[in-house]
Amino acid sequence: MLILPAMVAFQPAPATLPPGRRVYAIGDVHGCDHQLALLHRAIAADLAARPVAAPLIVHVGDYLDRGPASAAVLERLAAGPPLPGVETVNLRGNHEAMALAVLAGGDAESATLWLLNGAAATLASWGIDADQSAAFWARHVPAAHLRFLQGLAMSHSEGGYFFAHAGVRPGVPLTAQDPADLLWIREPFLSYRGNLGAVVVHGHTPKQKPVIRRNQIGIDTGAVYGGPLTAAILEADQIGFLQV
After folding, report:
1. How do beta strands 161-164 and 21-26 pair?
2. Nearest to 202 by CA among 236, 177, 171, 176
3. pTM, rounded to two decimals
4. Which residues contact 16 (CB under 8 A, 6 or more apart)?
5. Got the DSSP string for 96-132?
6. I need a labelling partner for 37 at 20 to 30 A (CA). Which of 44, 64, 158, 244 fits?
7. Residue 216 pairs with which residues in a beta bridge?
């Protein structure tokens, strides 16, 4: 189902963006390429209906694993911005980190961890037999996909927002966050209600609907588990959502 721009309901946001800037932050994809394509179409429709000077798309990571079409997701994103002329930032998630650890020559333990977290679906989407060795996997991953994974950003800042896949560690400056926390953290981040230095927009922890708090916005709505794929629309002091 494609939600039309006229159906987007906006509400006060916990932070602000400068005039003319609009961010579409997209949650965890996990191989759901059809939903990602529909969500990009919904963003294009919203931009056509409500043009803005400086739109930005931020994908918050976890493009791989569990879902049926990881290779197609990577092919789509590795090709460049999904909408011509729209700046795009692609963040690294913990699933990309697991994949890179193995494809860069990781040990058997790293390969087992990745397999336990849905790697078989990703390998199958590349036409790779999961029963082969990790060295075999690495030789058969498309080079463009590997370059895309290696080039992913760890975080991004816009106005009063900080974008990271999993979240941040409370009490640590945003500029000094441990990469492992940006990729993996849940607690004490999720239950923290104090000032984090910015409103943190994140995925990683699936919920039935987006979570909006004064210090964080969670946008993983479990697309791979049958939920919608969500994009938060951040503009000025407002927030709305597109879902497919």
Report:
1. unpaired
2. 177
3. 0.96
4. 159, 160, 236, 237
5. HHHHHHHHTT--HHHHHHHHHTTHHHHHHHTT--TTS
6. 158
7. 200
The strand ranges marked E within the chain are 11-12, 21-26, 54-59, 87-90, 155-158, 161-164, 199-202, 211-212, 216-218, 230-235, 238-243
The residue with tokens 């193995």 is 102
Closest-CA residue to 157 (of 126, 127, 117, 201): 201
Which residues on neighbouring strands pair with residue 161, listed in sequence order? 158, 199
C-alpha distances in Å from residue 9, one per residue of 123, 125, 234: 39, 36, 12
Q: How far is CA 97 from CA 62, 120, 184, 213, 216, in A?
A: 9, 16, 10, 27, 23
Residue pair 184/215 in contact (Cβ under 8 Å)? The answer is no
User: Counting beta carbons within 10 angstroms of the beta carbon of residue 197, is it exposed (0 to 12), middle (13 to 18) or buried (19 or more)?
Assistant: middle
Q: What are phi and psi of 89, to 5 degrees?
A: -120, 130
Distance separating alpha carbons of residues 88 and 62, to the nearest angstrom: 16
Q: What is the mean pLDDT of each successive set of 10 residues along the chain, which is 244 residues long?
A: 64 98 98 98 98 98 98 98 97 98 90 97 98 95 97 98 99 98 98 98 98 98 98 98 98
